[in-house]
UniProtKB/TrEMBL annotation:
Pfam families: DUF247. This is Uncharacterized protein. The lineage of its organism: Eukaryota, Viridiplantae, Streptophyta, Embryophyta, Tracheophyta. Keywords: Membrane, Transmembrane, Transmembrane helix. The keyword Transmembrane applies. InterPro entries: DUF247_pln (IPR004158).
Length: 464
């Protein structure tokens, strides 16, 4: 760059040629900029990433569903003062694993060396699971975090079931304070509070000496069945189905919720070129559909996503909702929004339920049909569904076919007339009796009129 550049108009004379606004020479700036570009050669979010910080757009309305109350798992909330009590419990749990009494319950001795050796070779892979690689933690700190958090979780899950109450220490603060378990149910299902599943499995196999009584997935699901009002919504993956890779605890819970529906969806998989990111026209609310002749029926317990509409009948599996339901659904949906390999199934469910529930009247109708078991007020329940999928996107809406069938059904006027006829004339035995009596009277009156007029139009011959 020289005076000729200025003369040709390529450089603004009002800007210093030798220094930029930060006081760096052009050569220094070029060197710094090239170094920054060199560092950016790899993607800031690797394809292996599956544990994310919740996007600000999702938490701007409510922050509480995404933030831990008593425990930090993983690197995102590590070191916060309010989690110190459970940090001490983590160390105590780990120490208990090495006590002689505990060792005699296993055929082999668990020791720190075996734990460190098991985790050391997994650090690089584990870092790749996080959207923020957390380089503020060096390798030793990262290994310590994986061991403390992993052992705490495994011991918590092993102690929790009632049949294993003998594993609980009498001075265990987690099980001596009932509120602690409630807080943990919330915290351990947060997207930001996850540990890679392969780390948990390696620790579980070490503790159980490679011969666990039950798979870790079953132990974890059994633990979280106590966290919801309706435990049947969680199911164990079908052992005959293709093995599903579990990425972390939240991913396991999502899989247990959607697995049955996912198998059916995979059989009818939509090509990527045909995926759409817009929603179909909203369907009317449950009360409005009922007025139009649609019936609502409780579906089989289990996979809450197995919603069908056939012959004017909406069949919906039961769902119990309380104050714990919202955070679980919000974190499941945040996971679907962030992880590209996740089909938007929970988000689709939230959209459909929001369509069906507008007001208290809709909540009352679905409760009457045993589709909803509501532990909230009717106002809070309707608001829960109305706000659930705000600021989310839905790609390949799961219930598009259901919505199309509902709209087709509503286009037939007879369905609405039939409903009105039933409501006005056949709602009670007395109204049915009155309608039949009126109908019989009308028929008799009609026949009498015919017999009265018949001689006038068809007179008999005179000789008769």
């Amino acid at each position: 760059m020289g005076s000729s550049d200025i003369e040709k108009g390529k450089v603004d004379e009002s800007v210093s040629i030798h220094q930029d606004r930060r006081g760096m020479t052009i050569e220094q700036w070029k060197h710094t900029f090239n170094y920054e570009l060199l560092e950016a050669k790899s993607s800031p979010v690797p394809v292996s990433c599956c544990i994310f910080k919740v996007p600000e757009v999702l938490r701007r309305q409510e922050k509480e569903p995404y933030e831990p109350d008593v425990v930090s798992i993983g690197p995102f909330h590590r070191g916060v003062d309010k989690f110190q009590l459970v940090e001490n419990v983590k160390k105590w749990y780990l120490n208990c694993l090495f006590l002689p009494l505990r060792q005699r319950q296993r055929q082999t001795v668990l020791n720190m060396d075996s734990l460190i050796e098991s985790i050391r070779g997994q650090v690089i892979r584990a870092r790749g699971y996080y959207s923020d690689p957390c380089y503020h933690l060096d390798q030793n700190d990262f290994i310590e975090m994986l061991i403390l958090d992993g052992c705490f979780l495994i011991e918590l899950f092993r102690k929790a079931p009632s049949e294993h109450a003998d594993r609980q220490d009498k001075d265990d603060p987690i099980f001596n304070m009932p509120c602690m378990l409630e807080y943990l149910y919330h915290d351990l299902l947060l997207l930001e509070n996850q540990l890679p599943w392969f780390v948990l499995e390696s620790i579980y196999n070490l503790i159980e000496d490679g011969s666990p009584i039950a798979p870790l997935s079953q132990v974890v699901i059994d633990f979280f069945k106590n966290s919801v009002a309706e435990p049947k919504i969680f199911s164990y993956p079908n052992p005959k189905s293709p093995k599903v890779e579990i990425l972390h605890i939240l991913d396991l819970i999502r899989t247990s919720l959607v697995h049955d529906h996912l198998e059916h969806a995979n059989q009818q998989k939509t090509p990527a070129s045909k995926l759409v990111n817009h929603l179909p026209q909203r369907i009317p609310s449950a009360a409005a559909l009922s007025e139009a002749g649609v019936k609502f029926r409780e579906g089989p317990s289990g996979c809450i996503l197995n919603i069908t509409f056939k012959g004017g009948v909406f069949t919906i599996p039961p769902l119990a909702i309380d104050e714990r339901t919202g955070p679980m659904f919000r974190n499941l949906m945040a996971y679907e929004q962030c992880y590209g390999s996740c089909k938007h199934m929970i988000t689709s469910y939230a959209v459909l339920m929001d369509n069906l529930i507008d007001t208290n009247k809709d909540v009352d109708l679905l409760c009457e049909k045993h589709i909803l078991a509501n532990w909230l007020s009717a106002d809070d329940a309707s608001k829960f569904f109305n706000d659930l999928y705000n600021d989310t996107t839905v790609i390949d809406y799961v219930y598009k076919g259901v919505c199309d069938e509902v709209h087709s059904y509503r286009k037939v006027p007879w369905h609405k007339w039939r409903k009105k006829l039933k409501r006005d004339y056949f709602e009670t035995p007395w109204s049915t009796t009155s309608f039949i009596a009126a109908f019989v009277l009308l028929v008799l009156t009609f026949l009498q009129t015919i017999y009265t007029l018949e001689p006038y139009y068809h007179p008999r011959p005179a000789h008769e």
